[in-house]
Automatic annotation (TrEMBL):
GO molecular function: rRNA (cytosine-2'-O-)-methyltransferase activity
Subcellular location: Cytoplasm
Entry EC number(s): 2.1.1.198
Chain ranges of the Tetrapyrrole methylase domain: 4-203
Organism: Lactobacillus iners DSM 13335
Classification via InterPro entries: 4pyrrol_Mease, 4pyrrol_Methylase_sf, 4pyrrole_Mease_sub1, 4pyrrole_Mease_sub2, rRNA_ssu_MeTfrase_I, SAM_MeTrfase_RsmI_CS
Name of the protein in its database record: Ribosomal RNA small subunit methyltransferase I
Function comment: Catalyzes the 2'-O-methylation of the ribose of cytidine 1402 (C1402) in 16S rRNA.
Gene behind this protein: rsmI
Lineage summary: Bacteria, Bacillati, Bacillota, Bacilli, Lactobacillales
Family, similarity comment: Belongs to the methyltransferase superfamily. RsmI family.
Amino acid sequence: QGCLYLVPTPIGNLEDITLRAKRILMEVDYIAAEDTRTSGILLEKIGVHNKMISFHKYNSKQRAPELIALMKEGKKIAEISDAGMPVISDPGFILVQECIKNDIAVIPLPGPSAFATALIASGFDAQPFIYYGFLSRKATEQIAFFNKMATFTGTSIFYEAPHRLLKTLTNLQKVVGENREIVCARELTKIHEEFIRGSIGEITNYFAENAPRGEFVILLSPAKEEETISIDQMLVEVNQAVASGM
Ligand code: SAM
C-alpha cells in the first residue's frame, strides 16, 4: 500500500533535518518537491539521492491525480516544500485532501516551521495563538484581519515579505495603535537570526530607518482585557445600530 509522507525541511540551518526525515527521503519511491532545483541543492547537501517530481501551486490540480495513481499502485511519496513544513503557507493541502478521499494514508513528520520557532522565543503567551500565514496584499483586506487581531486575547502570527513589511506595519499601527508590543523574528536558524522587539510605533520607525532584509515572522502580543470589546458591549452596539435603522 502506498502512502504520502509530509516531510519538513530546514528553514535555514541544515542541521535541523531530522534523522527520520532523512531516512524517509531516502526510502520513498519519489519526492514531490515544490521546486526541484532548490530541493535538489538541499538533498545533495544532506546526502539524499532520490527521484524528484515537481509539485507546486500552479501544477498541483493536474499533478495530484497522477501522484494519487502512483500511490494507489503502491508507491510511497514524500512531499517537501522549499523550506519548513509542507502545507504551512506552502503547497500540499490539495494532495492531503485527495489522499484522504482516496483512503491513502497520510503520515506527517514533525520538524521545523518558521511560525512555531518564532513563537516559542517571542516571549508572548503561546496559548492561544492564531497563525494567519501571508496576509492579503490589499490594504482593505489587511485592515479587516488587523481588526480581528486588535481584540484577540492571544498571540497573532503572520508572515510578510521584507519589501512589504514597512507598509504592512504602518497599516497595523493604524488599526491597533502604536503602543502594542510586537516581535519581528528575522532569519531564524541562520547566521543573522534576530528578534526585533518593541512597540508597533518603535518598530515601524526602526524599519523606516533600516530597510528590512531577509525572511520575517511577525508576532503581535495579545490584547489586554481593556482592549477587547466585551460581548455585552457588542450587543449594546448591535442594538443601537438596529434601533437607528441600519
Ligand atoms: N513552510 C514554511 C514554514 O513551515 O514556515 C513557510 C513557507 S513560506 C512560502 C515562506 C515564509 O516563511 C517567508 O516569507 C517568511 O515569512 C517565513 N520564513 C521561512 N523561513 C524563515 C526563517 N528562517 N526566518 C524567518 N521567517 C521565515
